[in-house]
Task: inverse folding
């Protein structure tokens, strides 16, 4: 199919990778609990656009630059770690402020949705491990005799992105009912502090990541 092969195996592999806890999944979970379905879907769409960026980057050879250049990889990973740390500090400020009332789904205004979309996009695009993942995984499912390997690469990237958006949207719908629970100030403070700790840990893990 357009130079790709073993699509069933590719789909199964993609599902396992999408379901594996990481920055994207944790951000989706945190924002869904805070803003409900609309907020979670905004993050998921941002992540999906980030996957499209990585697909195009890998197809154009930019991901290969990250794999070959230590300086380029380090620059991107530190930018990503700094962004995650910024998100962690925002949650920590919420915890120190005494746990502001948790936003309900209707509180996710148009501006909020745009901001959450950007968060999903930035956390995905600024993660060099995602770029290297696309560079390493997708070529394995492209036939050696494919007439147009770039087209096959883009097809697999689109397949992965679509599957990821659909799978994570289902995850949002499953988690969203928890956002309706009105936790007390102590619980909200604790959740903000826990979220800050998780994102700080993710930032540290990304900062210490090595090239594949």
Result:
């Amino acid at each position: 199919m357009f130079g790709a092969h073993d699509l069933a195996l590719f789909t199964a592999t993609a599902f396992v990778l999408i379901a594996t806890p990481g920055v994207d999944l944790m951000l989706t979970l945190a924002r869904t609990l805070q803003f409900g379905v609309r907020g979670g879907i905004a993050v998921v769409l941002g992540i999906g656009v980030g996957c499209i960026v990585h697909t195009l980057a890998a197809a154009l050879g930019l991901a290969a630059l990250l794999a070959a250049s230590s300086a380029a990889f380090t620059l991107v990973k530190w930018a990503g770690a700094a962004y995650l740390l910024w998100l962690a500090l925002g949650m920590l400020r919420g915890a120190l402020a005494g746990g502001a009332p948790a936003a309900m789904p209707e509180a996710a205004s148009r501006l909020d949705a745009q901001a959450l979309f950007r968060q999903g996009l930035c956390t995905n695009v600024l993660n060099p491990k995602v770029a290297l993942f696309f560079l390493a995984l997708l070529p394995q499912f492209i036939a050696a005799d494919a007439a147009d390997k770039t087209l096959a690469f883009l097809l697999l990237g689109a397949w992965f992105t679509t599957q990821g958006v659909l799978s994570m949207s289902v995850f949002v719908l499953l988690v969203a009912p928890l956002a309706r629970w009105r936790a007390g100030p102590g619980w909200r403070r604790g959740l903000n502090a826990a979220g800050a700790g998780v994102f700080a840990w993710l930032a540290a893990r990304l900062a210490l990541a090595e090239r594949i």
Remarks:
- Residues 138 and 153 are 6 Å apart (CA to CA).
- Residues 99-108 have pLDDT under 50 and may be disordered.
- The radius of gyration is 18 Å.
